[in-house]
């Protein structure tokens, strides 16, 4: 029977098990403190949990509308206006998705055609490249250099061509923990204003931004937002990554194309969770307004606890990640160092090179501080012994 098994030619032959899965499995096997995968080890707001239970008990357990529950889309529109001075149309401009990764995939699939070029900035989130490849696009990468990981706008201009279709950006940026500023969006607009180029702005950490001027969003730029899809994540905002609820904000014409993909990818998203999130946005807006301080305290706790270590800590302007240079400790490459760190020291981290297509010679690891204070202090104690 086995002789008749058909083995398909892989559409993504270069992909295997992700580093995140590998490191978490290694951490579990060696009972290491897991600062690798980006999810909290604490729960989300009690009110949000109660509203989920309420809506389940009330019978809101059937399919939601394809575009999202109306109450949630309206709450998102009001939140967007309050934060960025622009109110998208709840009916035509907002789509609720099964997590931000689905939103990214649907956006890329809707916009990118065979042979189109897509520009992204390395290090980059690992879902971008496979989605572009599956859509038949060609990914063009611009390497951002530590410690500040700023965009070289001359290099960006040089990379633009007649085939450029889409620019993917991420701010606050995973894994570098840097943020874009208004002048970056101005420079992007200047570069593409006379070209038929769209923008996909991955802003899942919008509420975890420590910059003094706050989060700069593509939605706050009047021209760019007319050709942009902005993506956000309730999982990041409410410490509920397992709920897998995100959303897109885009002009009606872009949303219509994105929804064609979304409709046949997931169709709709968990109904009671959407209703609970709508209640949460209305009842407790202070949660996301206070999130920068909440995570700033954890960042500072970890940074201070690592003060006596031989790790060099890079600036962290956003996300719940911290970069550390280990070159004073080891000559190992970053993947090998992270494996050694997990098995021998008992702390799991992520090597930065896995976020890059080209060789990444820097000795940098990513630590997640979305953890309980005791977890962070215990990890820091082990790292300070190195």
Automatic annotation (TrEMBL):
Stated name of the protein: Methionine aminotransferase
Domain of life: Bacteria
GO molecular function: kynurenine-oxoglutarate transaminase activity; methionine-oxo-acid transaminase activity; pyridoxal phosphate binding
Group of enzyme by EC: transferase
Keyword Transferase: yes
EC number: 2.6.1.88
Domain Aminotransferase class I/classII large, residue spans: 32-383
């Amino acid at each position: 029977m086995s002789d008749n098994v058909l083995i398909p030619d892989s559409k993504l032959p270069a992909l295997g098990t992700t580093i995140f899965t590998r490191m978490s499995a290694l951490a579990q096997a060696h009972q290491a403190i897991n600062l690798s995968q980006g999810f909290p080890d604490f729960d989300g707001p009690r009110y949000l949990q109660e509203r989920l239970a309420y809506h389940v008990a009330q019978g809101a357990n059937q399919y939601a509308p394809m575009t999202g529950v109306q109450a949630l889309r309206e709450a998102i529109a009001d939140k967007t206006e309050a934060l960025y001075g622009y109110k998208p149309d709840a009916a035509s401009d907002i789509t609720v998705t099964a997590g931000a990764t689905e939103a990214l995939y649907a956006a890329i699939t809707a916009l990118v055609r065979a042979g189109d070029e897509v520009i992204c900035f390395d290090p980059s989130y690992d879902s971008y490249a496979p989605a572009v490849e599956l859509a038949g696009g060609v990914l063009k990468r611009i390497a951002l250099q530590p410690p500040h990981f700023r965009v070289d706008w001359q290099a960006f201009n040089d990379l633009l061509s007649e085939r450029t279709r889409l620019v993917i950006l991420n701010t606050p940026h995973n894994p570098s923990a840097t943020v874009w500023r208004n002048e970056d969006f101005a420079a992007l607009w200047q570069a593409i204003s006379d070209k038929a180029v769209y923008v996909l702005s991955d802003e899942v950490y919008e509420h975890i931004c420590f910059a003094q001027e706050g989060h700069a969003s593509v939605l706050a730029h009047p021209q760019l937002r007319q050709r942009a899809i902005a993506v956000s994540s309730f999982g990041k905002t409410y410490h509920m990554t397992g709920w897998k609820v995100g959303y897109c904000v885009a002009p009606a014409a872009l949303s219509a194309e994105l929804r064609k993909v979304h409709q046949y990818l997931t169709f709709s998203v968990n109904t009671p969770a959407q209703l609970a999130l709508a209640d949460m946005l209305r009842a407790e807006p202070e949660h996301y307004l206070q999130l920068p301080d909440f995570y700033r305290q954890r960042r500072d706790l970890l940074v201070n606890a690592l003060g006596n270590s031989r790790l060099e800590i890079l600036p962290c302007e956003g996300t719940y990640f911290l970069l550390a240079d280990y070159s004073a400790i080891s000559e190992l490459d970053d993947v090998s160092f992270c494996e050694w760190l997990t098995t021998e020291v008992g702390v799991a981290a992520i090597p930065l090179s896995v976020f890059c297509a080209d060789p990444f010679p820097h000795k940098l690891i990513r630590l997640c501080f979305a953890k309980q204070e005791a977890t962070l202090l215990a990890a820091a104690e082990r790292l300070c012994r190195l």
